[in-house]
Structure formats: structure tokens, C-alpha cells
């Protein structure tokens, strides 16, 4: 053993001669084969294997660093200092009688108070304490042995070797235990952190970090309990983004995720700290407002308006600026529900009412909404059944050039022959179809039927004319929309120049891939009509960007002709602009002779409306054209 690893032994005895004896005995190096055999008998072969092995097969006598003191107080100080230096003593030989200071028993008590692991050998030549008395004073300990004076060198060396080895094994065991405890502690900490992460993940939305449905339900339950105790109220605000699926389909899901994260951030910023914002699913969020003023409708309306305003602000997504709106539904505890399910359900109903009214607004729950919801579900079910049972049919409204007195085309208009309600007009079922996505298969049926009918008329010798079909936003954003048009034209054998697709400016604004699809349709030879032109404020922006063939002026501009000066100015501006851009113009909704005269006086001669013809069945139109 090198000096750095020598065992430290402390001799506490008031006789200097004893100090010299211990140093002489314990610093001798001689063959220790007998001691090695004794160690194996005492500690076993396994413990022997844990010792460091020397270069030879024989284990050398261990090295000892020996310190000597004459009084118990001094010995205690040595023990304390060694502990503070991180180099404790392994063994102490303590004389039982050391006048005038502490005796051996008191010294050992104080040493063990500092270091319970040090091995002690009591050296005594007198019968000051019996074994029983020693045990009574110091307790029964395997760290304590008695050595009677006079002692021989073999006994001292045996004790020193065995007890220091025992002390070392105790230290190694303690170190292993500390390492094990540290490992257990680290793993426990790691497990706790993992559990914390898992708990957070199970209660929060991974995209926005807002509380999810699970945590939301728990928070609402807490609010219900609190409101019951304090006889108070709170509001559940159901937030659904308008046309979010359109953004996802038009751009990509990454853009949609970016938008949701920005909306979540804005909602968290616009609400108070005590309010709760959660993401329910998809583009649905919930705000729980716990304000004391919730009982005042004006205050709830103020909160809803703040939410709408913050959502309406321009969003920068990638390289695009997007403006989005939301529909909000509000239920109040306890008047609109006393359970989590009732409050969420009723807020959801109110939200659907806001969406049905055009979106970008809020609605408060009323009991009547439940009945409207039932009606809406029945309509959706009816629509699905209507498609399966072939209950839809088309009527055709002619378009005329009054100057040449010739038919210039027809518009295909869908009708629903309902088994109980009779003939249902588009305004009563198209909104439900668009909301549910059924507009896609219904729209495809319209295009197929219109193209096939137009070709059938041509095959019967009727002079060819174009047929117009209205295209909804959800149809246009379908990835296979243009391919579907190609397939229908090919199957029906209709020349593309006899098909017109009518789109509104809202379709162009709200769907990113519409412009590309319009250009592709134009290449096919299909004509493009910008419908309801002038109603919005963005149609003018697309006239020089899109291959538009025709403008269709909305009937709202001619309804009050001769009475509304601003409508007249706008109408004249549209007609003049179309003429300069070489665009065809058709005015729809023409119902009176005065409207016809006014339009013709302003160089507009192409009309569609009840003044000329109401929509007809295919057979009626065929008969009309033949006569």
C-alpha cells in the first residue's frame, strides 16, 4: 500500500513508551501469510477478492499512518480534524486510564459522537470497568474490542490488520450504498420528470400548449363547484374558426398549424389570467370567463367582441398574409346548463347558429337553438338520402341578347324534389350542403347532368349554346377538380366551349389554388364567368389576373334602379369597364321592362331573369327552343 492509501491509526495513551511500542510494532513489514489466512477465516474468500492485488500472489502487510496523543481531549480533536479534512481514522487504540483528563470510556463516547464508523480497541491493564459496565456505557458494538496489557506484537498486528480491513470494507460498502442511493435518487428524479412530462402531455395540446379537452373538463367542474359555493356565474365561449379547413386544403397543414399557434397565442393574450383558454380539437377553442360581471350580457358581449377582433387581425403565415374570422357561441352557468356536457353542448349550438348566419359573430344560447339543431341534423340526413335516392333535378334559365333577340346560353339551377316537403330551392339546402361537405358530390352531379343534357339537346338538332354551372369553394379546392371536369367532358362528349363555370369573388379570395385551376380550365376551352360581380370589394383586383370571359352583375344593382343613385353609378362603371376590357356582361335578376330599358340605354343588352323566362325543366326548354 502506498503512503497515500495507508490506513490511519490513532494511539491515545498517556504513556509515551506505549506510543513507541505501537509505532515499532505496526511499522514492521514481514511475511503475513499467517495473518492472511486469519483474514480469510474471519472475512471469507469473497471479501478477500475485493482487495487490491499486488503484482505477486502474496499480499503485503498493510501500511499504517500512525498518530499519537496523550489525552482523550486531544484525541477527540484529532478525530474531528481528520473528518473535516476528509481523511478519517480507521482505527484508534484507546487507553482506559489517562489522568488527569478524560478516561477511555468518555473519550470513546465523544469519538463515536463524531465518527460512528471508526474501529476502537480499548487498552487496559486494570479492572476499572468490567465488560458489562463497558457495554452499559458504550453499548454493544462490533466496532469495539478490548486488548489487555501487556500485549504482544502479534496480537496488535492481528487487530490492526483485521480491523482496518473491516473498516475499509465498511467504507466500500458505504460508498456502494451511496452510489446506489444516488442512482436510485437520479432514477427517481428522472421518473418524476418523465411523469411530469407525461402528465403535462396528457392534459395539454401538443401544438398550442393550451389545456386540452381532458384538463378543460376538469377546470369546468372546478368552476361549477366554485360557482355553487359563491352563488356566482361564468361563461363558456365556444370558438370555431371560419373556413379553417379551406386554409388547410388550399395551402398545407403546416400553414394551418402555424395559424392555430398564432390564434392560441392571441387568445391567451386577450383574455385575463384567471380565465381559461383551451383547444378542444382541430380549429375549436374554448374560453371560460370567470369574471364577476358575467351576469351582465353587455360584459359577455364585450369579451366576445375582443376575441373576434383579435382573431380578425392580419396573420402572417410563411410568405402569406391571411385574414380569418371566427364564429362564437356562448352559454352561461347556471341558466344554460349545470353540467360540463350541457354547457359545452349549448355553447356549441350557439356557435353553429353564428356560423349559419355568416360567421364572424357571436351568438348567445337560447332554448330554441336545440330545435334548430335537430332540424339541421335532419336536413343533413335528408341530403344524404336525397343523393342516394336521386331526388335532385335541374332546371334551366335562359340568357338572352335582347339586341339580337337570340338565346345566348342557359344556367343550370339545382332543385330538390323532397318526398315530404315538395320542391326545395337551393337557398334552403345549399348552406347545409356546404357546411357538411356534401356540396362536393352534389356539385359533381350537377356538372355531369348539365353537360350530358346539353349534349343531348345538340344531338337532337338544337343549335348549340353554352350551359353555365355554379361552382362552390369546396368543389374548387378539391385536388382533382380540373381532372373531374376533363373526365365529365370526355364522357359526355360535350365540346368544352359549351361549358361555363361561374365563380364568385369569395371563391377566388378564399382558396389559394383556385387561380391555378381557372387557368387550367381556360386552357381546356371552358369559359370563366365571374358571378355576383360588384357585391364584394375585391372582384376588380382579379380582372387583370384571371382569364375571365364574362361578368355577371348581381341583381341587387338593378333592384332599385331609378331610385338609388349610387347603384346606378356603380352599374355604369362596371358596364364601361367591361367594355374597355372586352368582357361580356350579363345582368341577372331582370324582372321588369323598366330595368330592361334602363340597361339598354346604358349599352347593356344581355339578360337573365323572370322578365324573359322562369327556370324550366329540360323538356320544357327543349319544347320552347323548338317552337
Element layout with pairings:
Elements: E1 7-12, H1 16-26, H2 33-50, E2 64-69, H3 72-84, E3 91-95, H4 104-114, E4 119-124, H5 131-138, E5 144-148, H6 153-203, H7 213-230, E6 234-241, H8 244-250, H9 253-270, E7 276-281, E8 284-289, H10 297-312, E9 315-317, E10 320-322, E11 326-333, H11 340-356, E12 361-364, H12 368-388, E13 392-401, E14 406-418, E15 422-424, H13 430-436, H14 439-459, E16 467-470, H15 473-476, H16 481-492, E17 499-504, H17 505-510, H18 514-524, E18 527-533, E19 550-553, H19 565-580, E20 584-588, H20 593-601, E21 606-608, H21 618-626
Parallel strand pairs: 1-2, 1-3, 3-4, 4-5, 11-12, 14-16, 16-17, 17-18, 18-19, 19-20, 20-21
Antiparallel strand pairs: 6-8, 6-11, 7-8, 9-10, 13-14, 13-21, 14-15
Describe the structure.
The protein has three domains: 3-176, Rossmann fold (3-Layer(aba) Sandwich); 213-366, Reverse transcriptase/Diguanylate cyclase domain (Alpha-Beta Plaits, 2-Layer Sandwich); 389-626, EAL domain (TIM Barrel, Alpha-Beta Barrel). It starts with 6 loop residues before the first strand and ends with a helix. The protein has 21 helices and 21 strands. The model is unreliable at 30-59 (pLDDT under 50). It is α/β, with parallel strands linked by helices. It is rod-shaped, with a radius of gyration of 48 Å.
Number of E-state strands: 21
Strand order of the largest sheet: 13-14-16-17-18-19-20-21
Low-confidence stretches: 30-59
* Total discrete domains: 3
**Helical proportion?**
40-55%
CATH superfamily of the largest domain: EAL domain
Helix count equals 21
From the N-terminal CA to the C-terminal CA, the straight-line distance is: 125 Å
CATH architecture of the largest domain: Alpha-Beta Barrel
CATH topology of the largest domain: TIM Barrel
Q: Describe the sheet with the most strands.
A: 8 strands, mixed, barrel
SS-based class = alpha/beta
How much of the polypeptide forms β-strand, as a percent range? 15-25%
Highest-level CATH class of the largest domain: Alpha Beta
Gyration radius, to the nearest Å? 48 Å
Apparent shape: rod-shaped
Mean pLDDT: 86
Organism: Legionella resiliens
Protein name: EAL domain-containing protein
Pfam family, one: GGDEF
InterPro entries: Biofilm_reg_signaling, CheY-like_superfamily, EAL_dom, EAL_sf, GGDEF_dom, Nucleotide_cyclase, Rev_trsase/Diguanyl_cyclase, Sig_transdc_resp-reg_receiver
